[in-house]
């Protein structure tokens, strides 16, 4: 086992708040066998199956109910139409149902899964590198920057029509990168992560003020409604053409974060301890925060601002598999994907008259859970 893994496994017991040294397991098992890793693999397999069924349920449910068996058959027939097991029977579903599954609901469910995974991973990493359990993916003002990009395109007509359906996601993505400029400029001189976070908070306030000004002074009611729907978060505009680019960014950066897991584990020793083990803490923290921001920007570009997923899911993943980043990040990604697909299903089905924004659903559910978590945490601490 590496020093990084050993440090991560000496984590605080959530009930007592005291460090737990897991170098020796019950029953005489030593660290070399690492039963925690086996449990994480098993949990990952269970969550993968749960995600597959959550996506299938998301495609099945809606104003037009489609049986799960039909969903699996339609997808299988579209992916492998000429194989021996799909080519021996003729489709029994209508063309309209096939279009609903393939062209509407499936890209929406996959987008929700990708965004949920991205937000959960970004939240887990943000909490690790800042050592702040209240950190979330929007730590550096990414959501406000994305909102400003949407407002500029919608209200001022900047660049509208240049890329058709891609205009809003592109505007959100590049707007989300605006706060990174301030972060990089400050991080070039500041050695304290607190200064970087404060810059993100300040830029978030400035960009939010700019959004409010443009909406109230320049925009009209229709434009304000468009922007507010985007800010509330949702997947109503999801389609295949909008999925590939953010999917590539999210998958690649999630793989980068997982690969950096052992370096994230070194941060459990504190800055001085990590530096003594050979890490350039300042450079690593800046790079990983930039990765978090780009990962969040890719998610926000296609979903709008969705809260609480990146804040709560890492805590749940940590409770299940511990704070070792090598195990925590993949489990958080799967949990986030399942949670946001489920939230999207609730947003579409809780009311027969209208579709709720997904951000509203996650806030209504996540807010009370967060309060309970804080209450339990500080009750134990006292």
Supply the CATH class of the domain at 111-326 and 355-381.
Mainly Alpha
Let me know the number of strands.
0
The radius of gyration is 22 Å
CATH topology descriptor of the domain at 111-326 and 355-381: ABC transporter involved in vitamin B12 uptake, BtuC
Largest sheet: none
In brief:
The protein is mainly α. It has a domain at 111-326 and 355-381: ABC transporter involved in vitamin B12 uptake, BtuC (Orthogonal Bundle).
What does this structure look like?
The protein has 382 residues and is mainly alpha-helical. The chain has a domain at 111-326 and 355-381: ABC transporter involved in vitamin B12 uptake, BtuC (Orthogonal Bundle), CATH 1.10.3470. Helices cover 71% and strands 0% of the residues. It contains 16 helices and no strands.
Based on the model shown, name its key terms.
single chain, mainly alpha, ABC transporter involved in vitamin B12 uptake, BtuC, globular
Secondary structure elements and their pairing?
Blueprint: H1 3-9, H2 35-60, H3 68-79, H4 95-130, H5 142-155, H6 167-176, H7 178-187, H8 193-218, H9 221-232, H10 240-259, H11 261-266, H12 270-276, H13 281-303, H14 309-321, H15 325-349, H16 358-381
Helix pairs in contact: 2-4, 2-15, 4-10, 4-13, 4-14, 4-15, 5-6, 5-8, 5-9, 6-13, 7-8, 10-13, 10-15, 14-15, 15-16
